[in-house]
Amino acid sequence: MRLRTIQHDAIRARSEQNPKTLKLNWKIVVGISWYKIVAKQHALREGTDTTDDTSLLSTEIMTKIQALTHELENSKIRYYVYDDGGLRLPKIRAQANRFDKPWAWKARWGKRFEEYARGEIRWLESLETSTLRTRDPLEADFFVVPIPITATHFWGTTSDRTTALRRLLFGWNHSDSNINSSNNSSNIDESSLFRRFPEKHLAAISTSEKLINWLGLPEAELRLFRNSTLVNDADLTRSDDWLRDQNIIPCDKVEKHGHFESRWFRNVVTLGYSFEAGNPSFFYQPVTMDAWAQKSNWFFYHSRKTPSICNSTIFRHALLPGGHAETLMAQNMGSNNTNNSTNFTHVIQGFRHQPVSIGFDIPYEEWQQKFINSKFCLVIRGDNPGSRSLFRAIRAGCMPVIVSDQLPYYQPIYINTFPDWNDFALVVPEDIFLADPVGSLDAAVDALMQSKLALERKIEGLRLLQRIMTNDMSDSLFVPALAKEILIATRSK
Known about the structure:
Shape: globular
Distance between the termini: 22 Å
Number of strands: 12
Number of helices: 23
Strand content: 5-15%
Largest sheet: 5 strands, parallel
Structural class: alpha/beta
Helix content: 40-55%
């Protein structure tokens, strides 16, 4: 994702009024479309514009978003999903969907992956029930293997997992004779499809970090997947490349999971989001201009009091009581006031856009009500490069404000499908945010609100992303978007 920087008049004016609030030349990171929009506006104000391109403010983003929406709504991609019960593992799926207590997972760490497992099952079920599914292997653009990989770690055994994988690799005669394959109602011999078309197979969906490392197969058998595709939720290779380009040493407190996926699978398709986007228990509000405009809070951000790892506390607590914004405000005012309550009130009142809901954690019902009633939701870097708050914001129709330089590289959202993060979110660099936490956010919103047309296009992009990421709604575009990414991957090498 290429980002451009611009000098913003509102920030310049703010710094001239109070030079102590500015220790560097302010820049707001925006996408290429924003760069053109603001340049056009500046030229019109200065009387230096010599073009008659009045459509610039509305067409570039609108064209690609509308074109992508039309493409996905009219997708002609066809894929085949195995019917065989020895791959679908219906008993394990049923235990997961009934919210049975996991009996196979003994370790304390990784309990959160239980919800990842259910999310993967929901995705498989969406693929199984979509109209894009074909029952004819000969007309399939690719094949989907419906093994619920992560669920086998919680409600199954290593044998369940390895038996299903070997059943795929070597045919039904290598599988456990006790497996019930009566689910196959198509009367199609599926047992040789993988050996005939390995390069056209989506072999697994696994978003549970290193659990995919524990497939239970020896290397000789893992090599048989080398021509197939895997779907996960993060791009470790792209993230590591970005860290290296920025000369940043990875946080040594975050466990390194290696690059198992790229070692054993030719193609790795990155969703860029996890189960949270399609979690039916989490509230959902389709975003429109009218619905967004009626939200009462401008900014929403609440975080725990305990510190974060990887030097993230200064970012996560910057706007909170006792945080960096209070320190800057006291310095700028030449004050020695140590009353945190008073200082925090000054920070909150410092936002030009009011009201805001910012502070430490609050009761869930209150949190939910304020969250869904906010225009902008802050997504600030935390313990690891990923972010659940991003998915929750998108699902709730709250425009994300990204304060996490690594996030767009760690979780690129469908790099072949969705054009750019700047088409649905505001992106504020970490150093800009720390220099003035309040001012940087106000300036980002000011830049967006200059043009109603530009705001409409951003809302349009956010709405499309809602439809792509949520698989539990009637107008979901999850399946055609995922199918497009898989098809591009399987044909790319």
